[in-house]
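look at this record:
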Amino acid sequence: MTTRRAALALLAAAPLTGCGALGGSVRVGSKNFTEELLLGELYAQTLERHGVRVARRLDLGATAIAMLALQRGDIDLYPEYTGTALLDVLHQAPIADPRRAYATVARAYRERFGLTWLAPAPFDDSQALAATAATATRLHLRTLSDVARAAPQLVLGTVPEFLHRADGLPGLQRVYGGFRFRRVVQLDNGVKYDALMRGAVDVVVAFTTDGEIDADHLVVFVDDKRLFPAYQAAPVVRPAALAAHPPIAPALDALAPRLTTAVMRRLNRAVDGPAQREPADVAREFLDHG
């Protein structure tokens, strides 16, 4: 993956030529994790299939780097999440309702940055808690309210930041009450599902489009009090690019409805799972065959 320092150096070196750089190509960016790389490839390949020349600037780094690149005119579009836009860019309170979250960020980006959000995909890559079907059945767990009551019997596996975020464990305790786990084990994202399947932990912090959810037949608990904010993804685009390349909006708006939660779990699994396939190949296969 491109390091933050390397990505910043790339941006500093890039000319501020605006839309039409690189021989009239649309420059598609992305952040530096699997789902963003997949979305970047899906956007790029969709545009190419509609006759648009594309230059890929994927794997840029974190949100701040991708947003800087877009504002500077070093890229023309990249995938962003409504929850990330609200919390990390606009520094506003999280919004659980997907439609209201989208309307809020689309308006704020237009007014504050002069940027356009295209149609959001229906998938929601929000935080969640998940467990094996055996654990959920044994303890009669379906909702987060159920988990809140059963927490003293459970071991939680989580990344460290979840223990301190307002929409993490403190938020669960505030909104639901309870959530006093028997033990909390701090884990890296890359090993949490292995720990769950081995029985080292009973519940893990998940993202709802993680490929392991379907592959391991996990139960994702219903957020019945709607703590977790919506994280729908959509292309954020410079208006100059939309004007210069009219196919961008209709092409990407037509792609959006195809990207459901089930689809993104499958595509993420193809890249991160045992097959370890390239995002470009996975994206191409999906566009060819669904």
User: Anything to note?
Assistant: The chain has a mean pLDDT of 92. The first helix runs from residue 4 to 13.
